[in-house]
Design brief:
- The protein is mostly beta strands and 287 residues long.
- It is built from 3 helices and 15 strands.
- β12 and β13 form a beta hairpin.
- The radius of gyration is 19 Å and the shape is globular.
Length: 287
């Protein structure tokens, strides 16, 4: 979910003394719905705050240039990343979140997905844990298909498709259920699919599960997985906390990020999580 911006820039202070007016606080005290941005500690309540955040990215971020245009990437010590997309006049028109974690998976990329006419915007479709089957012959070419937003999509235009690449996948929770163990999940009336399942949100939606993006090329997926590791992070720009979990789904690994509003307490190893997630991925190159 790219955060679109209207043309009204503003400044924001990022020192801890001004945290009460940062994008992580709501002066009226109401609770915002979880979003991919809030899943890494950036809670935005107004368009003005969106522009404040865009200004921070533009001032403190690193420019990434491609043949099709420019991004600005702001990284933090906790792994949160913001990718601002710049228009022809070098003004940010949208911001995408990512989380730089250690969950790397082998993916056979089979298709580029363009959902508008902007060259910086795009998604990649592929198969997790590619098999030896030839694409289109002899069965599925991997464990399951996955479609993810690429925050630096234009950087990969050199890539010939299909190809097998290493991708670091992040998943931002939009809805969530937790279960204390695999046994508890298996015994639950809420069990719909086995543990270590990933379904495109369109397929899960056919079974009555909530989905956000209803476009045919949505990068949302319903994930059921076991927590292998977990940690609570604090975003150093907003001082807002979020929960991270390392989750395995068959041959794929995911850095799961969760807005605390969706949790009653910190996650622990061995718990099962199930919910709808917004997927982001960056290719990993060994130099």
């Amino acid at each position: 979910m790219a955060m679109p911006l209207s043309p009204r820039p503003a400044k924001i202070s990022t020192d801890k003394a001004s945290a009460s007016s940062s994008p992580n606080r709501n002066p009226q005290g109401s609770t915002a719905m979880p979003t991919p941005l809030s899943s890494i500690g950036f809670k935005l309540y107004t368009q003005e705050e969106s522009w404040q955040l865009a200004t921070v990215v533009a001032e403190k971020g690193r420019r990434v240039s491609t043949a099709d245009g420019n991004y600005v990437c702001l990284t933090t010590d906790c792994g949160s990343e913001l990718w601002a997309k710049l228009d022809a006049e070098n003004r940010p028109y949208a911001i995408l979140p990512h989380f730089a974690g250690l969950a790397k998976s082998q993916i056979l990329v089979t298709q580029r997905i363009r959902y508008n006419d902007r060259p910086l915007d795009g998604r990649l479709l592929g198969w997790i844990n590619p098999s030896q089957s030839t694409l289109g012959f002899g069965g599925p070419p991997g464990d399951y298909p996955v479609l993810f937003e690429a925050p630096d999509y234009a950087f990969y235009t050199f890539m010939e498709v299909p190809c097998t690449v290493t991708v670091q996948l992040a998943a931002f929770a939009q809805t969530l259920q937790t279960f204390p163990s695999v046994e508890a999940y298996d015994a639950s009336p809420d069990k719909a699919w086995p543990v270590e399942t990933l379904l495109p949100s369109s397929a899960a939606g056919l079974h009555g599960y909530q989905r956000g993006d209803k476009s045919p090329h949505s990068n949302e997926a319903f994930i059921i997985g076991v927590v292998k590791a977990s940690k609570t992070y604090e975003n150093p720009l907003t001082y807002g906390q979020f929960q991270w979990a390392g989750v395995k789904v068959m041959g794929g690994l995911y850095d799961i990020c969760i807005d605390p509003e969706l949790l009653s307490g910190p996650l622990t190893t061995g718990q099962v999580i199930a919910g709808n997630f917004w997927l982001s991925g960056r290719l990993v190159f060994n130099h």
